[in-house]
Amino acid sequence: xxxxxxxxxxxxxxxxxxxxxxxxxxxxxxxxxxxxxxxxxxxxxxxxxxxxxxxxxxxxxxxxxxxxxxxxxxxxxxxxxxxxxxxxxxxxxxxxxxxxxxxxxxxxxxxxxxxxxxxxxxxxxxxxxxxxxxxxxxxxxxxxxxxxxxxxxxxxxxxxxxxxxxxxxxxxxxxxxxxxxxxxxxxxxxxxxxxxxxxxxxxxxxxxxxxxxxxxxxxxxxxxxxxxxxxxxxxxxxxxxxxxxxxxxxxxxxxxxxxxxxxxxxxx
Length: 268
Description:
The chain is mainly alpha-helical. The protein has helices spanning 15-23, 27-36, 47-81, 84-93, 105-120, 127-137, 142-145, 152-165, 179-186, 200-205, 210-216, 227-241, 249-265. The longest helix has 35 residues, at 47-81.
């Protein structure tokens, strides 16, 4: 008696799979697009919706290309400036926490982790792993880092050291010897929470810039911004701009984009 093996179930593509194939993207991206634009998940995209999705995909592609270019430029400048002499100068004046304004180990760790993420696009789970990556990105500075051992204080100094080295493309001049001046020079507080790459990707993709976002939310043109202040400014304007209360939908969307832009860059 012949034995017929069980047949595998056939896969029937749904609307999202068909839309994804038509737009050359993933079904997950299609579902996300439909959710953001209030479209029914089970319905096929119209020609206009497909065109809009393709525009978004292209903007994302250009944005990623801009990010990659900005990262490459930053890494090239870091490699140029992170010489053994410059790294030794940073290590020599690196203050301990008791010598200057109070800075926690968590802040020093975030200072490092956020910069490594900005340069690589990858979020590292531990400062130790980020330090290894930093040493690979700036190998000329590795010898100076050997002075930092495994104690808690040295881990703090190690994280701060590599955070500074990976910002030598942004910091101006040699490190000052005074601990308080050093903290100001390395901009540790200004970079708290700052994890995005430079804004070249935003420029290429036509995304809202920080200055425009500040102006739209009626926030100061310069200086630090607390996330709570950003959200409060958004809520104050969104109350009257929301379409449900007779506001303009485009302005409401721009306000949300401005809020997200400022929260993304972490101007705290």
